[in-house]
Amino acid sequence: MDPTTHKKDDSLASPPSPPENSGNNVAEFTVSELSNAVKRALEDGFGHVRLRGEVSGYRGPHASGHCYFSLKDDKAKIDAVVWRGNWSRLKIKPEEGMEVIATGKISSFPGSSKYQIVIESLEPAGLGALMAQLEERKRRLTAEGLFADERKRKLPFLPRVVGIVTSPTGAVIRDMLHGFRERFPTRVIIWPVRVQGDGSAAEVAAAVRGFNALQPGGPIPRPDVLIVARGGGSLEDLWGFNDEMVVRAVAGSTIPVISAVGHETDWTLVDLAADARAPTPTKAAEWAVPKYSDLLDQTGKLGLRLGVAVRRLLEALRRDLRSAERGLPRAEDLAALPRQRLDHIAHRLDGALRTRVQRSHTRFLQIAGRLPTPRSLVVHQRQRMNATGLRLGRALFANTQAHHTRHVRIASRLHQRLLEARFARAADRLDGLARRARECLAKTASVRRARLERASGRLQPAPIRHRVERAGERLDTLARRVERAMAARISQHRNTLDGQAKLLASLGYHSVLARGFALVRNADGATVRSAHALSPGQALDIEFADGRVQVEAKAVTKSGDGAAATAKTAEKGPPASQKRPSKDQGSLF
What we know:
Elements: H1 31-46, E1 48-56, E2 67-72, E3 77-82, H2 84-87, E4 99-109, E5 114-124, H3 127-143, E6 161-166, H4 171-183, E7 187-192, H5 200-213, E8 225-230, H6 244-251, E9 257-261, H7 269-273, E10 276-277, H8 281-288, H9 292-327, H10 331-370, H11 375-413, H12 416-458, H13 461-507, H14 509-514, E11 519-522, E12 539-544, E13 547-556, E14 565-569, H15 576-579
Parallel strand pairs: 3-5, 6-7, 6-8, 8-9, 9-10
Antiparallel strand pairs: 1-2, 1-4, 2-3, 4-5, 11-12, 12-13, 13-14
């Protein structure tokens, strides 16, 4: 066949007839035909491929919704495109410098004659790249202060409503509800979300914001505490809880949040942003509400302490009252000094009254003797003197009466019966308080006794025995499931191991040696792949399927000029029949 003859692909359109004076029969193609043929050849020849490389030139989605970037390694580079329909279904979004594994189809863009990969799924290239992305996101959010301890809030002591964000079909919610029933029955509101896969991060963030949007007193009660829960898993399974959207929603929540994602050894960025991080979902339920029996014990202890404190207070008041009563003076001692002063004043008042009357009478007589007056004047003066004496007597009598009344009033207030009445009223009041304290203590003891009887009624051996039997049946079921799972896992690993052994046997070089080939190594144990790497006199080790031979290279020539190397057998090598391979034997490498 003429080497210039070209056989056209069946997918190409029939080319136009060559000109008569062309001098050859080479078909002519338009640029569009050739580009479309190359595109179909690439798509039909490769189909789906998995490509590992580093993201380069990523600038985010285009205005059209498509995303364009490149994948590269240390030696090559390929364009990549993610169509708008596949962008929302990607497990992870590409970032500049991230090492990823892309799955898609190889195609070409006829407009620029460049081949590209159309990505359908994207995943991180191993745990190292994922951890690097996680650490970088953690560093950036820490710098913003989302993980600061100052943002942490104290959990409520006894929440009336608990909101849980988790999957409604998993074992996590059943364990948490069982924990609530065992510790403290409370109202639980579940916001069902997906906890793994595409869209799980958006659903969890929307659930946290939805709980915070509830108004107090509305048709749906607003939770006092939130729990974001999920079972254990790998880093890829928990990746949705490392999403920046979820972390910001938890950090911005006005309701305290408990993170219960994974087991104790697992951690996510949500654990750092939440107000508390529980090692397991069951432990989160225990942290959210107190234990009912502990509250009863604490209430009983506080009631006993209150009763003892009241009794001690009453006894102290009674002692203080008795001490004050002993310190008060007697009623006779209190009234003795005022009575003595009253008697002294009354005695002085009588003497002063007589002295004043005598002086007034003497002065009157003196005035009457010095003034010679007619009889009418004398009579008038006598009347005035009598009137003055009468007014003075009345004033003295009124003053004496007032002093006497005051004395009687003071004496009545300082009577011993009044103090005894006050002491009696205080004693009655003290007896009333003691009686009320005894009644209150008896009522409290009655309530405690009733609660104790109800609790003892609930602690009958039959329910406990029934619960123990149910737990034993559940334990047996779990044990059988563990045995079946272990047997299935061992069988799976055994099949995998057998497959790897068969693959090793088919791909290992020993099977190649068994077909008549040989492996040549130098004195250092390195494989010799070319005759140019040898020098005359160099010691060699040739491995066959049934043993090894130590030889020495005598001369080295090119493969086109004769033998690649001439070797002589070492003194301790195998027989000559085992040293020399057939002349028709090809090279292993």
